Amino acid sequence: MLEHGGNLNDAARHYGRPRTDWLDLSTGINPRPYPAPAPSADAWHRLPETSHALEQAACDYYRAPRLLAVAGTQAAIQALPQLRLQQDGRPAEVIVAAPIYAEHAHCWRRAGHAVREVPYDGLDTALREGRCQVLVLCNPNNPTGATVAPETLLRWTAILAARGGWLVVDEAFGDTSHGDSVAALSDQPGLIVLRSVGKFFGLAGLRLGFVGAAPALLETLADWLGPWSISGPAQQIGTAALRDRHWQAATLQTLLSEGQRLHVLLARHGIQASGTPLFQWWPEREAAAFHAAMACEGVWVRLFTRGAGGIRLGLPPDEAGWSRLQHALNTWSQRG
Amino acid sequence: MLEHGGNLNDAARHYGRPRTDWLDLSTGINPRPYPAPAPSADAWHRLPETSHALEQAACDYYRAPRLLAVAGTQAAIQALPQLRLQQDGRPAEVIVAAPIYAEHAHCWRRAGHAVREVPYDGLDTALREGRCQVLVLCNPNNPTGATVAPETLLRWTAILAARGGWLVVDEAFGDTSHGDSVAALSDQPGLIVLRSVGKFFGLAGLRLGFVGAAPALLETLADWLGPWSISGPAQQIGTAALRDRHWQAATLQTLLSEGQRLHVLLARHGIQASGTPLFQWWPEREAAAFHAAMACEGVWVRLFTRGAGGIRLGLPPDEAGWSRLQHALNTWSQRG
To answer: According to the model, what pLDDT value does residue B4 have?
Structure first.
C-alpha cells in the first residue's frame, strides 16, 4: 500500500513522541472541520439506504446535474480502472498527469492498464499525438496546485469521448476555486469528476465523496460499489455540511487568508512554494533532511520522495500551531 | 442492484405510510443495538489510520488468530470474486449454497465466474464429485438457519485447499452460536471467514465487518480495499462494542429468549419456521399475499420471490411491536 499523509501513528512510533504532541501538517485537510452534528439515534443502527437528500445537497453545492455519493473519493479512484477493464475487456492506454496524488497511477497500474505519467505542460501534446483512452488529472493539483482551465478540460473531454475514452478530473481540492470546476458539465459523455468532503469541510473521517458523470456510467459505478457503502451518520453529517452556506462562506474567507499566510511565512524563510489555500508545496532539494528536522520539532510534514522530491505543508489549526511552525522553520533556516 | 431488507423508504413510498409508522421486521438486525458511545472530537476529521485496537478487540471476541477490518461484510463479498479472478487469470467454477444471502452468487457471477447454486444437503456430493475451486455458504444460513458442523467445513476446506481453492464461510449471524464458528481456524490455507457487527450488535449503520484468512490473502485483500475504508467513528464504536463482555452476555440471553418467542408466536399461527435467534424464515406458499397483508398493517417483512418464495421476520424492538405483529398475524390467520 502507498504511504500517505495523516499517518501520525507512524510518526509517533518512529520518533518516540506521543501522538498528542505533534503538529500534524502532513495532509491538506482543513484543520478546523465542519462541526459535525450528532447523528440521529438510529443512524448507527439501520442499514443506510440511499439518501436522496444527500445527493441533492451535493448537486446544489457542487452545482452539478447529478452526483453519486461514494465512500470517499478513494472508492471511486479504485473502482474506475476496474470498470474500464470490464467495459473494454482489455487494458487501456492511460495518461496520468504528474506529479499528482499517487493513488491514481497506482490503481490504474494495479488493474493492469498501460500507464504513462506526463507532466502537466505535456498533457495537451501527449493527448493529441497519442492514442490514450483515459487521461487522469487533479484540478487543482495535489501537491503542486497547478490548474487547467475548464475550456481546455472540455476540449480534452471531446477528444477522449470521440475515442470512447474518459477524462477523469479529481477536484478534491476544488472548493476554494469554484471557477475552475467542470462539475456543472460532468454529465457530458467522457467526463468524470470526483469531489470530496474530506478537505474543505475537514471531514476526512466521514469517508464521503461524490462522482459526477454520464448517467449510464454512474449506474454502472453504483452497481460496482454495491449497497450501503456510505454509513448512515456520514449521510446525515455530509448533508448538513453541504447545505450550510454560512459556514461555507466563512470558511472560504478563512482558508484564503490562512493559505496566503502560509505562503508568506515560507517565503520569509526563502521557500518559494505553490499550492492551494489548504496546502503549500515546493520541490525541496534537501527534502528528507527538512522532513527529519521538522519531525525533531514535533512538526509532521509530508515528504515526497519520487522524482526530485518535495515537501507539502497543510495549515496549522491555531496560533500555537503557527508559532510552532515558525519556530521550526527558524531552526531550519539557521542550521549550520 | 439486488433488493434487500431494511428498505423502509421503498415501503413508505409504495404504501403511502410515513417511515415512522412502520414496524420494520425486514432485516435480521438486532432491534436493540449496542449503545454507541459518542466518537472522539477528531474522529470525523482525521483520515482513519488502521486501528490495531479494533483488530485486537475483534480477534478476542471472535477468537480468531488474525482479522482484517472491512467496511461491512459486503465489501469483502464484492472483493473476493475479483481477487480470485486476479489470482487465477480466468473465471473459476464456484458453488454457492442455496438459498443464501443473494449478494454472494450475484457478486461471483458479476465477476464472470461460473456459478452453480446447490442446496445445503447436496453440497458435500457436489464438492467431492465436481471440480469447483470455490464453495460459498452462510453458517448459520440466512434465511433458513441451516448450519454445517465445523468438522465438515474443515474437511471441505482441505479438499478445496488441495485444489488451490477457497471455502468462504459467511458467519454474519454466527454470534448466537459460537460453537459452529470456524473463525478460530481461519488462518488455514483455503479457509475464508466473514464476520459482521451489523447483526448481533445491531450496528448495520457503522459499515464494519471482519475477514479471517491466511495472512497472504489478508494482505492482498487489504491492498485491494485500499486505505481508509473504515470511518474513524466506526473504528471507535466497533472497538467498544467488541470489548463489552457484559453487554454481549446480556444480549445473547435476550436474543435467545426473543428468538424463541418469535418461533412460538409463528407456530401458534400455524407457521413452522426455522432460523436463528435474530430472524425466522419459512417457505410461505402465499408469500406475496402475506407480505402485502403485513404491509397493510404497517409491518414490513422480507419477501423472497426466488424459487418457492418465502418470508423472513426479524425481532420486534419492544412490546408495542410484538402486539402489532401479533395483531397482523391474527388478521392474516382469519382472512376469508
So the answer is: 85
Across the interface, of A27, A82, A231, the residue whose CB is closest to B207 is A231
Q: ipTM of this complex > 0.95?
A: no
Which residues does B8 contact at the CB level (< 8 Å), separation at least 6? A46, A49, B19, B22, B24, B26, B300
Which of B40, B47, B84 is the best substitution to test chain A (most A C-beta atoms within 10 A)? B47
Beta bridge pairs of residue B169: B137, B193
Runs of H (alpha helix) within A121-244: 123-129, 150-162, 215-225, 232-243
pLDDT, tens only, B22-60: 999 999 999 999 999 999 989 999 999 889 999 999 999
Residues 119-178 of B with CB under 8 A from A: none
The burial of A213, by beta-carbon neighbours within 10 Å (0-12 exposed, 13-18 middle, 19 or more buried), is given as buried
B264 touches chain A (CB under 8 A): no
Q: What is the pLDDT of residues A91-115, one digit of tens each?
A: 999 999 998 889 999 999 999 999 9
Q: What is the DSSP letter of A37?
A: P
Q: What is the pTM of this model?
A: 0.93
Question: How far does the CA of residue A147 sit from the closest CA of chain B (Å)?
Answer: 25
Distance CA B21, CA B5 (A): 17
Closest CB to B232: pick one of A103, A205, A227: A205
